[in-house]
Amino acid sequence: MPSSRTAVPGYSDRFLGILSGRLKDQESLQQMAGQLNEMLREAIEKSRSLSHELSPAVLYQSDLGETFEWLAQQVQSKHGLTVHVEAHDRIDSRSEAMKAFLYRTAQEMLFNVVKHARTKEARLRLQRVRDQVWLTISDQGQGFDPHALGRTAGFGLFSIRERVQLLGGRMKIRSARGRGSTFLIAVPDIQAPSPDAPAASGGPIKRRHTDSAGEQPLRVLLVDDHKVVREGLAALLSEQQDMEVVGQAGNGREAVDLAFQLAPDVVIMDAAMPVMAGDEATRQIKLHLPQTRIIALSMSEEAQISRKMRRAGAEMYLLKTAPSEQLLGAIRKKRQAGKSQ
């Protein structure tokens, strides 16, 4: 099993740099190290792209209307399909899981339009009807026979209908050959249960009294919904004499609760968090703990996400692929500034 340290930003770069330095007198092996470094960079970029498509940060940072506007831009850019989004007023779901379901369903259905409808335009409409969220996707393409839905595996609509029914919703389809298609999905908007109690996950907290300079270590709370990332960051910080990890949280609500309990010096906050979005968790922590510094981490380079996190109170916005020294420098920033004065 690979070490959790490989999840730390820039960790592979550090080891490859050491390896390259030791092989400076062996040209062929140094060339192999350079090729390996390039392969790792490509793998990271592809992984970031796939993660971004399946669960983009905007999904947890925006309401459903803004999320679908963003999706429409992506579909236009990648597939040339113009999607007209209609969302009257601000429409959102009380459940992060429901938001993710609606996003992926719309993504899949729009891809069906690209693949099967033979049209350059589609329409996506979002409504709230009492305690339900309605998602309608329509096009003026070639259409199909709805009675053949179960036999038409290429559309993937039979699978979507089953998932909708499992959620207590319904799906209606109107289509005819040469007359386009309309799909209506109506699902109940049910609040996902909150955790009974926050958990400082990831094993026992390692505490130190003072660092080598006689100062109290910086108390850091790690917030990320991927356990391997938290463990990688914890491994990195555990090697620093002037830092200690006082807790770990796997969602935004846990982050707020643990911050109130532990009053950390620094919070490392993933921008895309379930249950409560990263910017909202940041806002609540800064409201009650203004002295706590928050550093945002993300896989996304989008300026919109960075602006939201900074407006919420994050003092820095770093990419997860950045070198580990950049994150460590950000954590130490205020302490280093104090020493230089």
Write the layout of secondary structure elements.
Elements (H helix, E strand, L loop, with lengths): L10 H12 L4 H28 L3 H4 L2 H16 L2 E6 L8 H22 L3 E9 L2 E8 L17 H10 L3 E6 L5 E8 L29 E6 L3 H12 L4 E7 L2 H11 L3 E5 L7 H11 L4 E6 L4 H10 L3 E4 L4 H17 L1
Parallel strand pairs: 1-2, 6-7, 6-8, 8-9, 9-10
Antiparallel strand pairs: 2-3, 3-5, 4-5
Description of the molecule:
Strands 1-2-3-5-4 form a 5-stranded mixed sheet, covered by helices on one side. The chain has a 5-stranded parallel sheet with strand order 7-6-8-9-10, with helices on both faces. The chain is built from 11 helices and 10 strands. The chain has 3 domains: 4-54; 58-188, Histidine kinase-like ATPase, C-terminal domain (Heat Shock Protein 90, 2-Layer Sandwich); 218-340, Response regulator (Rossmann fold), CATH 3.40.50.2300. Strand 2 (121-129) and strand 3 (132-139) form a beta hairpin. 45% of the residues lie in helices and 19% in strands. It is α/β, with parallel strands linked by helices and 341 residues long.
Characteristic key phrases:
341 residues; Heat Shock Protein 90; globular; 3 domains; alpha/beta; five-stranded parallel β-sheet; Rossmann fold; five-stranded mixed β-sheet; disordered C terminus; 11 helices; disordered N terminus
